[in-house]
Amino acid sequence: MKIPLESIKKLRQTSSASIGDCRKALEQAKGDLDQAVIFLRKRGLEIAASKQDRKAGQGRIEAYVHLGNKIGVLLEVNCETDFVARNEDFCRFTKDLAMQIAASSPEYIKKEDVPKEVLKEHKDQEDFYKHYCLLEQSFIKDPNITIKDYLASLIAKINENIVIRRFIRYKVGE
Fold first, then answer.
1. Backbone angles phi, psi at 105, to 5 degrees
2. What does the pLDDT look like over 106-150, one tens digit per residue?
3. Is 31 left (phi over 0), alpha (psi -120 to 50) or beta?
4. Number of CB atoms found within 10 A of residue 89's CB
5. What gap in Å lies between CA 144 and CA 1, rounded to an integer?
6. Domain 5-51: which topology?
7. CATH 1.10.8.10 location in the chain
8. Helix axes 147-158, 88-104, angle to 10 degrees
9. Which of 36, 48, 108, 147 could cysteine-pair with 29, CB 3.0–4.6 Å?
10. Least confident window among 50-54, 89-93, 100-104, 151-155
11. Do 48 and 30 form a contact (C-beta atoms < 8 A)?
């Protein structure tokens, strides 16, 4: 099936994936843009999983103070090289993540971080994860994806392991 160049451009703008990956996704989806996006997300998760074992010893500390100086966030995100730590996409990711933490006040990074005692207190565990685990939350700038999806797409694009190491959220009076 011949994929129109306009479709590839549109998917590339939406996903930031490479031209080759966009073409392959559209071929797999038989030209359906929505299905191609789903294919690229799955591919991003597969790539992210394959890079999980790599050591992420570089990175950046991001600081965000919300308008009015009532909420602040300090965040550490690690990657494999200092070159990537200075990359524009990586820096945008850390800024977006700090804003996400300020806006949605997660308590944990991933599901595995939640103590079993805390989970016992909540009947709907999946709902708890979506509210209190950063990686399970819907991204505030695009509610169609989760932070986990955003992270996986960045890992696929940059081709390095990226780890959200820790964060702390401050709010005046808390």
1. 40, 60
2. 999 999 999 999 988 888 999 999 999 999 999 999 999 999 999
3. left
4. 12
5. 28
6. Helicase, Ruva Protein; domain 3 (1.10.8)
7. 5-51
8. 170
9. 36
10. 50-54
11. no
**pLDDT exceeds cutoff 90 at 28:** no
Decide: 162 and 77 in contact? Cβ < 8 Å.
Answer: yes
Tokens of 83: 């070159």
The CA–CA distances, whole Å, from 26 to 29, 35, 43, 46 equal: 5, 8, 13, 18
Q: Judge whether 151 and 77 are in contact, CB under 8 Å.
A: no
Query: At 138, which helix (H) or strand (E)?
Result: strand 138-139
The residue to which tokens 């790539």 are assigned = 47
Letter for the amino acid at 89? Answer: D
Range list of H helices, the chain: 5-15, 19-28, 33-51, 82-85, 88-104, 116-120, 125-132, 147-158
Per the CB < 8 A criterion, the answer to whether 147 and 137 are in contact is: yes
Fold entry, domain 58-171: Tetrahydropterin Synthase; Chain A (3.30.479)
CA distance 85 to 76: 11
